[in-house]
Amino acid sequence: MVKDYMSRISDEDLLILKNYAAGVNKLVEQIHVYPMEFYIFWNHFEPYTPEDSVAISFIMMKFISSDWFFEM
Fold this sequence. Notes:
By secondary structure, the chain is mainly α. The protein is built from 5 helices and no strands. Helix 1 (2-8) packs across helix 4 (50-65).
């Protein structure tokens, strides 16, 4: 689903997502202590990609729209 969306995204939007990912990766390079989740789950940081931003937006859309029946 994410790959399909990424193939149809405009060049301007792709540039925005790439710049955002570059900013996240630059910030992670500069911090000395990772957030607590990395230590709790014994995980390491993988470089952030534009696909990560799209996947997060899909997950948010799923959670926001999944309980529409109960909100009525």
